[in-house]
Amino acid sequence: MTVQTPAPKPAITDREDIAKRLLRSSAKASYDPLVEIDWDAPIDKERYALKPERISLYGTELWDRLSEEQRKELSRHEVASIASIGLWFETILMQMLVRHAYDRDPTTNHVQYAYTEIADECRHSVMFAKMTQKLAGRHYRPDFITHNLGRVFKAISNGPLTFAGALYVEEILDQLQREAMVDDTLDPLVQAVSRIHVVEEARHMRYAREELIRDWDDHGRISKAYSRFILGLVVYFATTRLISPEVYKSVGLDPREAAKAARRNHHHIDTKTWAARKVVATFDKAGLLAGPAKYVWRRAGLLGRPGAPAAIAR
């Protein structure tokens, strides 16, 4: 009989050592978006803000109906919607990091890096807010249920939920922005915002990844089951709200019809699977993807379509 060897746990370093290195990196490479980005420059409406293949309606009948000008306009609103969700979750994350630091020794590198990340997230929130205003002239606030579930989540989160939730949202944004920042066909503002966010979020993801894995093993079976379930809900609502139905009004489409088409669009599902592939692998290896929670991840379109190639990168 062949016995399968369990997948090795992700390696982690000493908490104080990694925090010291992250603090050093922050001192060398941190940015003030208000200074680094030319906010007075006009949006280039001849360019897309997002690769066409990543737009939620790409490849659908509704996409075929749109003119090239409308497609570019939709790309700007979709980026604004994604940034709005990012801003919403960063606000939640800042509160959870404050709670994480509250009971810990502020003289440690670990807590001092938590404070540093909070400062980074404050700047990112301003940056995202200014970008959404420039691209779409508005903020795409999450729907009432999602907005108030955010209140609940930040109140009941434990250590694994704080860092798993942060890692998930940061990884999704990171994948999209790594692609955007090197694509010179896209709007310069989107590229500039992406570059800043990618550099600083790399540190945040390292911090969250190692703290999650370190903390996860200290929890018992019931706590782990609870964390998997709540994380599944957070992931589902954050992912399915990335593109607000309201964005479709910008190009004269019916929000309900367009949102339905996007949910069924295999190109859109494949993009979500691609964007989540790294964090899915991390969570799977750590043991966070198991039981009923896995069904929720699949419903969110993060584990791929049946028969589709895994983690398609177009």
From TrEMBL:
GO terms for molecular function: oxidoreductase activity. This is Diiron oxygenase. It comes from the Bacteria.
